[in-house]
Design a protein that fits this description.
- It is a single chain.
- The chain has 4 domains: 55 residues, no CATH class; 73 residues, no CATH class; 113 residues; 104 residues, no CATH class.
- Helices cover 80% and strands 0% of the residues.
- It has 13 helices and no strands.
- Helix 4 runs antiparallel to helix 5, helix 7 runs antiparallel to helix 8 and helix 9 runs antiparallel to helix 10.
- The protein is flat, with a radius of gyration of 42 Å.
């Protein structure tokens, strides 16, 4: 009996040991399979050099240099997109509803048409004066260099036109901004929320500003925050006054202050700055009168007088000759007969000088009065036309007077 019990105990121990071995084998296999992916992951991470650290769990440690490179790459991509969308950006600011690709095709088409017309004109003029080789060279240069030059001029003119449109739109908005802010302030004090106060302050006489506020309200109705819509509206225009007013309004909304009194104070400050500008322009009126009188009246008259004196000298010199002198009188060769300066060339020179002085004077007057050349481009053109016209008129008037005296 004792031997049987011992055998049974041994068998039980063997079974238990086998079970433990099986369990330990399974656990070792599980551990091995669990550990292998972690080891592989750690090896991969070490090979990549991402700066990871081995702990109980794999924790990610951000590499600063790589993050800086990522940020720089994103900035470079944004800059490239801005360069590509620069034309679209200007068209949006000037409120011109046309796609950039269509605009490029149209400008190229007009440049090609102008180049072909100029080429035909040159061929018709030089056909019987030059050889065929020269005509071929002229056509080749016109269709290459001439086309590029005309393209550059058209693009330059288009950007100047767009810039002037943007400037005029900005000035129109600044002119009615005070009234709009006062109406909005009155609506807020009446108990309206800020978005409704902006909507009910719109009037048809506000023009461009009314359309822009309508766009802001449409964006807010579609779920866009009011602060974001107002910021986009201010960024569309190169107006420091508008941007500062909108930024003060947004800060007041975030702070939770009295928006009505804030808008009223902003409107009062804008009024004060406009009054100061008008007073400064009135104080320098004497300088404006002096520059205008010397440019538009004195300079053309003196240039016309110089032209007539040149004609008189050339006429007298043509009549004087050495043969008309009496015998025994020594002659002095003054050289009246030789025309070193032709009256026609002097006339072209006078037109050029008067146009330049008139344009520069108009620029100076615009800077003195308004502090910006864009606001006085019409005065520049007007001064040039008046100055050249008075120069030509003075030539005719003084010519009649000198002919009557002679």
């Amino acid at each position: 009996m004792g031997n049987k019990k011992r055998k049974k105990g041994r068998l039980v121990k063997k079974k238990n040991s086998r079970k433990k071995a099986v369990k330990s084998g399974k656990s070792s296999v599980k551990k091995r399979y669990k550990a292998e992916p972690l080891k592989k992951l750690e090896k991969n991470l070490d090979v990549k050099g991402e700066g990871y650290r081995k702990t109980g769990k794999v924790n990610t440690k951000i590499n600063e240099e790589k993050e800086i490179k990522k940020v720089l790459s994103v900035i470079n991509k944004r800059d490239e997109q801005k360069k590509r969308n620069l034309l679209k950006y200007y068209l949006k600011k000037a409120n011109i509803d046309i796609e950039p690709e269509i605009l490029k095709k149209k400008i190229f088409k007009w440049a090609l048409i102008i180049t072909v017309i100029l080429d035909i004109f040159l061929n018709a003029k030089l056909m019987y004066k030059t050889s065929t080789t020269h005509l071929i060279l002229i056509n080749a240069t016109m269709l290459t260099a001439g086309l590029l030059l005309i393209l550059l001029l058209l693009w330059a003119g288009f950007y100047i036109y767009v810039d002037m449109l943007m400037f005029n739109r900005t000035k129109k908005i600044e002119a009615v901004l005070v009234d709009f802010l006062q109406l909005t302030s009155a609506n807020i004090r009446a108990g309206m929320p800020i978005d409704q106060a902006l909507w009910f302050a719109i009037r048809p006489r506000f023009g461009i500003l009314a359309k822009e506020i309508e766009l802001v309200e449409k964006k807010t109705l579609t779920g866009e925050p009011l602060e974001k819509a107002l910021t986009e509206f201010a960024d569309k225009y190169n107006s420091k006054l508008l941007k500062e007013s909108i930024s003060l309004l947004i800060e007041g909304m975030k702070a939770g202050g009295e928006i009505g009194s804030l808008l009223n104070n902003i409107a009062d400050n804008i009024k004060d700055t406009q009054i100061l500008r008008k007073e400064m322009a009135a104080n320098v009126m004497t300088y404006v009168i002096f520059i205008s009188a010397s440019t538009l009246f004195a300079a053309p008259f003196l240039m016309g007088l110089s032209y007539q004196l040149l004609q008189v000298i050339t006429n007298i010199g043509s009549q004087i000759g050495a043969n008309q002198m009496p015998q025994g009188v020594t002659t002095i060769s003054i050289g009246f007969g030789k025309q070193s300066i032709k009256p026609s060339d002097f006339k072209k020179f006078g037109i050029f000088v008067i146009a330049m002085t008139s344009g520069i004077s108009a620029m100076i007057i615009t800077m003195i009065q308004k502090g910006n050349l864009k606001s006085g481009w019409k005065n520049i053109i007007l001064f040039i036309i008046i100055g050249v016209s008075l120069f030509l008129a003075s030539i005719k008037i003084l010519g009649g007077m000198f002919s009557a005296m002679m």
